Amino acid sequence: MKIITISREFGSGGRELGKRLADAMGITCYDQQIIEMIAEKEQLDKTYVANKSERSISAFYPTTIARGFYRPNYAMIQSAQIMASEHELIKKIASEGNCIIVGRAADVILADMQPFSIFVCADDETKLQRCRARADSDEKLTDKELLRKCCEIDKRRAAYRKMFTGKKWGEASGYHLCVNTSGKEIKQLVPGILEYIQNWISEE
Amino acid sequence: MKMDSKTMFVTMSPWRLFFTVALPGMVSMFAMSIYSIIEGVFIGQKLGEAAFAAINIAFPLVMINFSIADLVGVGSSVPISIALGRKEEETANNIFSCSVVMILIASVIMGTTMFFAAEPLARLMGADESLLHTASKYIRTFALCSPLTTIFFAMDNYLRISGYIKTSMFINIFFNASTIGLLVFFLIGLDMDVSGSALASSISMCLCSLLAMIPFVRGKALLKFRKPKISMKLLKEIAACGFPTFMSNIAGRVTSILMNISLMTLGIKVFGEGGGTTAVAAYAVLMYAGELCQPLIYGMSDSIAPAIGFNWGAENYDRVKNITKCGFIGAGAIGIVASGVMFFFAEPLASLFVDAEEVKLLELATHALRLFSVTYLVRWFAISAQSFLGAIEKPLQATILSVCVAFLFPVIMLGALWGLKLDGIWLNMFGTSVLALVLGIILIKCVWKRVKR
After folding, report:
1. Is the CB of A163 less than 8 angstroms away from the CB of B82?
2. What is the pTM for the complete model shown?
């Protein structure tokens, strides 16, 4: 049984790679579905869950905190709940059979199952291209703004991962394979990666 | 949070939602600060001007002692919630036990220091010879009870994390009732001095800490005591999570100390010998009078925060805007009413906290209250803005605003209004609030601009 996890820089094509690998291997790739499943399970809004997941949890209490009656920090408690429910779901999915899970620090959460972990990155130009191709037609962001947004999302992902492990997000030694998709079409990369994974698994 | 409150956040009309959640929030917050107002009345009426001033000078140190427990309490609540969520009970129990031990150790150290260094510390915070004895007596009483008092707020936090919301509310009500009861007993029944007032709060807190510990000791709560294993990583994590709250706490206390020192200096300059005491006591009256309306604004802003946060996360920005607008209008209305009441009823308000025989203090406090009343025309904005930024999880912006309001702006205003002497101090919070209004608008606009894209 083999689980593959994909961590990715925003806009680097990690999701596409996951999907194509899964198609080639005949297994399921979980990405956005995880959000939908949690939203349904917790009876929460989908956008809300998406915005809460993959980001670190912070606590801010008003300064009245030590003056008697104060409310618990709902935002924090709910974020923790969503995170917990996500972890539970990821573990459940992984225990059900071979699959690919994109993002959500799945490699750390599933560390016990020793998943094959991939990190996908790309240069700014490729990321921009990919974002533009995927964006709505009324997208008005300039290149600079778009890149800043990518950077922000990556920072959030890094902070989220940092909550569970000492290993840095995106540091090569934390993954089995790092793929740079700069200037390449994902389609072309799939066969090579697939072979690498299969060799790796059969070696074990 | 239950399903119904989620639906309520998304579907109920903004004003109805506002009244449904904000009114109970305001009432409970106000109810919980009644004891501090009654305490003010007792100290002012029964113990008089000097005691009033001495306590006001000593109080920031007492609060700094609490802030350290808060740092650990708030800081550990994040990793504990995460660990509980991940069903890693051992980790959660360990963080909980470590935190309790750390708070105990810190409060023993702080308590010992405060006990033995009470006099130099009181002097440092502005007490002159006439106030030194009373102020250090107040500090020492709190110092003696330190380990069991400081842990109260953290234990309350842990109770809530473990789901004992009702127990926590009961303990808070008990705290209020017992503090008021003990105040009456010590100050009127036993005719005690300032140490009676310190003892009343300390004993109530100790009792409440013990009550709050019962579920944990009996092993019934989600969190359980175990042999703590402290690691550097854990310490760092707790410090990082609790830092924003700690910073704004400490900043506020340092400002109070600076204010008291300035009041002592300016009071003597204006009224001669003993004028410092009168000035500090008048300032204490302002702070207690503020307690009459501030909890209402805090309670309102905090109780609509979950609704704002929820809609923000769901990207219902129009709804966020509408609910926030209700919050701001409500807070503004309270602020303006409070301001009017303070201005037109300055004398009866002041005489609530001042014995009628202390004519000079009553006169000064009335004058001060009139000037101070303008504060609340703008002050509500900073509170609402801070709560809003916290609700939409912008801790950095919220911390910037709260540290500026608690420390930076008052210090700037202290310098800028120094020429107005005591009037400058009464107007300090007004100036601070105007600056906070500007900063708050800038911060919220920045956040909003990024949403629009």
Report:
1. yes
2. 0.81
Cα angle vertex A77, ends B13, B314, to 5°? 40
Find residues 51-70 of chain A whose CB sits inside 8 Å of chain B.
Answer: 51-52, 57-70
And the tokens for A186? 């994902």
Euclidean distance between CA atoms B15 and A93, whole angstroms: 43
Q: How far apart, in whole angstroms, are the C-alpha atoms of residue B276 and residue B193?
A: 21
Residue B245 and residue B264: Cα distance in Å, rounded?
29
C-alpha distances out from residue A24 to A21, A33, B309, Å: 5, 19, 41
The Cα of B314 is separated from the nearest Cα of chain A by a number of Å equal to 4
Check A140 against B453: CB less than 8 A apart.
yes
- Which domain, by its residues, includes A31? 3-203
Tell me whether residues A47 and B386 touch, CB distance under 8 A: no
**How many alpha carbons lie under 13 Å from residue B191 in its C-beta half-sphere?**
0
Average pLDDT over residues B171-193: 88
Q: In the 8-state DSSP scheme, what is residue B332?
A: H
Each residue of B365-377: pLDDT tens digit?
999 999 999 999 9
**Domain count within chain A:** 1
Instruction: Give A156: exposed, middle or buried? Use CB within 10 Å, 0-12, 13-18, 19+.
Output: middle
pLDDT in tens, B255-301: 999 999 999 888 888 888 788 888 988 998 998 888 888 888 888 88
Is the Cβ of B244 closer than 8 Å to some Cβ of chain A? Answer: yes
CATH of the domain at A47: 3.40.50.300
ipTM comes to 0.74
Average pLDDT over residues A39-53: 81
Which amino acid would we find at residue B113?
T
Which chain A residue lies closest to B250 (C-alpha atoms)? A63
End-to-end C-alpha distance for chain B, whole angstroms: 31
Q: Any residues with CB less than 8 A from the CB of B338 and at least 6 apart, and which?
A: B292, B293, B296, B373, B376
